[in-house]
Amino acid sequence: MDLGLHHKVIIVTGGTKGIGGAISKAIAAEGGIAVFIARSNEEGISLQNEMNTCNQEAFFIQADLTKQGNCEKVVAMAVEKYGRIDGLVNNAGRNDNVGLEMGTIDRFTTSLNENLLHYYEMAHYCLPELKKTKGSILNISSKVALTGQGGTSGYAAAKGAQLALTREWATELLPFGIRVNAILPAEVMTPLYRNWLHSFKDPIKKQREIEQNIPLGKRMTTAEEIASLAVFLISEKSAHTTGQFLSPDGGYVHLDRSIT
Ligand code: NAP
């Protein structure tokens, strides 16, 4: 299936590795132009070179999106280079374990800054361009928004708010034909996830325990599987899908695990 992403300019926050990296690569593989943002210059340039070597157009912008003014700046850079924006994938973030009992107001606020505020800011600054192209927005949220996790109030609040904003923006942007959807990953092996696993005494045992609870295939979801859904949702092939929360997680959240 041709998704019709040829020459479409899609911004991916946190697009150098993990889920965002897989989405950037999937956009480029579909003939789209991935404009991806992250803090590490080395990883960004390396991915950009990798794509360019395969004759794929890609543009890496080094920026920390939590710093004031950077969201506006990166959007302006993308528009200056390509003259348009067809899609935004809000993805950058991390589960930072700012709990209720052991957290502080300062750490909770920092967590919201790292996980939520740039989702709004990026959408706000992309909007004038998305109105011209009837583009689309995809928010990468988390199963934690629906299930909770315990000990991670800041992240859970941010991920839940991303779902609320998905519906809110889908409604506000109906008159412009701009669609807004959310993906809720559950267990995906990424650099972030690997680091978390290694906080356990026996990471392999912990991984096996988690996998046993995933109904379909007793395995984790791959970043590429998330990316396949992401490019579909960004593309015109999903032209009548908006305000949706999708869980590509092998049934982890929605199936009755006691019968599998
Ligand atoms: P990851 O492996 O750590 O990748 C995160 C990406 O975001 C990297 O490219 C990182 O690059 C960039 N980034 C982080 N903070 C940034 C900032 N302030 N400014 C610019 N770039 C930033 O994480 P992941 O596991 O792929 O997670 C991606 C998204 O999926 C997150 O929103 C996460 O909450 C969600 N999610 C993941 C899972 C999972 O199982 N992995 C489950 C549920 C939800 P730099 O470090 O170079 O900036």
Automatic annotation (TrEMBL):
Domain of life, source organism: Bacteria
One Pfam family, short name: adh_short_C2
Keyword vocabulary terms for this entry: Oxidoreductase
InterPro entries, alphabetized: NAD(P)-bd_dom_sf, SDR_fam
SUPFAM superfamilies: NAD(P)-binding Rossmann-fold domains
Gene Ontology terms, MF aspect: oxidoreductase activity
Keyword Cell wall biogenesis/degradation on entry: no
Annotated family: Belongs to the short-chain dehydrogenases/reductases (SDR) family.
Stated name of the protein: Short chain dehydrogenase
Taxonomic path: Bacteria, Pseudomonadati, Bacteroidota, Flavobacteriia, Flavobacteriales
